[in-house]
Amino acid sequence: MHKQFENYANQPCDRQTKDEKSTRYMVCSVERVTGKPRVISASSSLIETGDGIGYWFTEESKVAAIRFFHSGELFMFDIDGKLKVELISAQKVMVNGEEQFQKRSVRTKFDQATRDRLEKLAKGGGEDILSKFKPKSKQIAPKTDGTANLCTKAIRQGTIRLETIPNVTVTRNSRFAPLSTIYPDAKSGLNRRYTFTLSRGGFGDACKATEMRLEIARQVINSCAGVAEATFARDHTGEAGTIGLFPNGSIKQFSCATDFDLRTRTRPPLTWGQQACNL
Q: Maximum Cα–Cα distance for the chain, whole Å?
């Protein structure tokens, strides 16, 4: 299996990169006889640290392998997207206080949660990365009721990206809801929000991924009819961060409103662009 991955990884290809804020996207592809390019690999990573995720693809454009750059973990999948093995590289380890050389090996046993998470990533096929290299006209459609499939895709891609963060799971409590604060432009037709509800363990790390959350929010707002904001919330708590669309067309993080007054047990009404931070 190690040799099989090396064959995927060592294929010659034409490399393209695109930087957006703190994230670097990369696609490496070759041109088929038909003239249509075939993607060999794709990745997204933080420019400063290199942390991120990489995908390698089969001739049939199925995900063959996924590597997490921050941990070095490398997993391979069969043609149906089922997790096969984790490839463990040769390394030096300490045994009874002595340094020994451990040959490269494989792991084939996984708990169900790990298997589900990785197979979901494989099923997504790195689409959030590949979409960066498609013409913009194909990425963003007018926000009408006919964009339901585009909206579903944006939410699915956002979920996949969030779950690349260690210990983050997007729970079933994620959903659409009416806006809690009326949008300033009454004629815009914007009247709802989407909340990604995250498992408690990885919520703090998700909050640190500012650029990722901003990009996910932008895709959801641009793709889902009537949506003016995207919220990233910690499951079963009041902790959350919101990113929304402003009347001037900008999409940015909401700021903290005036603190809750413990003496009067009140808080001034929120205006658009504000969120309650000290719940």
A: 74
pLDDT in tens, 239-276: 899 999 999 889 999 998 766 555 665 667 788 999 87
For the whole model, what pTM was predicted?
Answer: 0.54
pLDDT at 9 > cutoff 60: yes
Could you report the per-residue pLDDT of 43-95, keeping only the tens digit for each? 998 888 888 899 999 988 899 999 998 888 899 999 899 999 998 876 665 66
With bands split at pLDDT 50, 70 and 90, how would you rate the model's confidence at 143? very low
Euclidean distance between CA atoms 253 and 217, whole angstroms = 10
Sequence length of the chain is 279
| 227-234 and 105-107 strand pairing | unpaired
Enumerate residues 6+ apart whose C-beta is below 8 A from 126: 42, 53, 55, 63
Q: To the nearest whole number, what is the mean pLDDT of the chain?
A: 84
What is the β-pairing status of strands 192-198 and 227-234? parallel
